[in-house]
Amino acid sequence: MRVQDLVDKANDAEKPLPPASFDDLIKDLHTNLENYRQAVDDMGGNQRVLKSSDRKKMLALPFYLAKRGELPEPKRG
């Protein structure tokens, strides 16, 4: 029941409009990536929680996930 409530809430939420132009899409992408980078850099505050190699892996994660996204299965017809 809880999972279905979360799914219903996500489906009923207002969806953002797509960017008006390709330039806006690229600008949004850069902004989102910069925010993600800042969030990774801010992990742990002043103390360095992440090692250099772990930080690099975290920064590469969105690109690895984009390559491994599941596409819908092709259908005959």
Your description of this structure?
The protein has 77 residues and is mostly helical. The protein has a domain at 17-67. It contains 3 helices and no strands. The longest helix has 20 residues, at 22-41.
Topology:
Elements: H1 2-12, H2 22-41, H3 52-67
Task: Looking at this protein, list some descriptive labels.
single chain, 77 residues, mainly alpha, 61% helix
Structural class: mainly alpha
* Unreliably modeled segments: none
Which whole number gives the mean pLDDT? 83
Task: Please state roughly what percent of the residues sit in beta strands, choosing from under 5%, 5-15%, 15-25%, 25-35%, 35-45% or over 45%.
Answer: under 5%
Report the span from N to C terminus. Answer: 37 Å
Order of helices and strands: HHH
- Rounded to an integer in angstroms, the radius of gyration calculated over CA atoms is 18 Å
**How many H/I helices?**
3
Oligomer: single chain
Shape: extended
Biggest beta-sheet profile? none
Report the count of strand segments.
Answer: 0
> How much helix, percentage-wise, in residues?
55-70%
